[in-house]
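Hey, can you fold this one?
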Amino acid sequence: MTISVLLDPAQMPDQSQDQLDFDNKMSGFMRDLPILANQINETEAGMNLLQAGGAYAIRYVFDTATADADPGAGKLRLSSATQNTSTTMRLDLTAGGQDYTTLLDTFDSSTSAIKGSIRLVKQGDMSRWMTFDVTARAAPTGYRNLTVVCTDSSSANPFVNGDGVLLFFQRTGDKGEAGSGAVTLLGATFVSSAVANIDFLNIFNSTHDRYTIEIQGLRTETANQTLCMRLAIGGVAAADSYRTMAAHGQAVAGSGAQLELAGLTSNLPAQACSATIEVRNANASTLKSVGFRGVTFSIPNNGMIANMQEGGYAGTSPVSGFRLFLLSGGNFLAGATIRIYGHRNTQ
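Sure. Predicted structure:
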């Protein structure tokens, strides 16, 4: 801000002037004095901005009201009377005669979970301040609500009603792309009732070429069951071209209608199955392989069995997902948790 008034000494009133000239210059002086005060305030605010830094800075008047309503022209309020416990910051769309709607609506444009950081500082007293992380924005009529977490403050309540405050905003960079080989949780389910099939028929995609399926607490309605898997093609479980084998053995003879992964001989709550299934080479036209690793309980000898099983699927189409089921056609009981992780392509 440039000071543009009361700069010419020749226009200042002086006792040596005749009465008419003095009166005219005094009138001009009194007219320009409020303009000078405003320009001095603007200059001070600009100097404060330079000292405090930040990508954006807006001048507001602090309002101690906490209601979810438009705080009024040029005003800012927080959602709690104890200022550093507030979770929402309410900003009018205008401040200092400027409309900041477009700018405020960019405060949540980052793709990162934390959209940016805000620093509130009292004008003329940099020792009174608060800092916040911004995580979301809402757009009620006439104002904006920012979801915030206070990260630090000079005191629990640095500001009083009517304080002039400077709002500084620094945007967070966008979330980076996952690198090659990165692992992403693609989906999960909790089995809440008895079901014959656990289906994730369309969860695989071209971004990932290897998948890990974590199983916890899997139980069956009746004992002595065989856990099976079919891979899905285009969202449909395929019932051919499979072969199952022991970890270091040859293919087990069979119909090839499914992969037989493990025997579930017990269905007691304390003896539920927890295991990991890995699906490899899912997008290729060549052989897909499936590995099972887990611990099951053996009723006859009241002991635990380490199960390691490998299988292959000779279909030539990319795999879109999978189905878990029991060879006998029975049901899984409620209580199991299934999570599916994708391993990002390395190319």
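Residues 56-171 form a domain with the Elongation Factor Tu (Ef-tu); domain 3 fold (CATH 2.40.30). Let me know if you want another pass with a different chain boundary.
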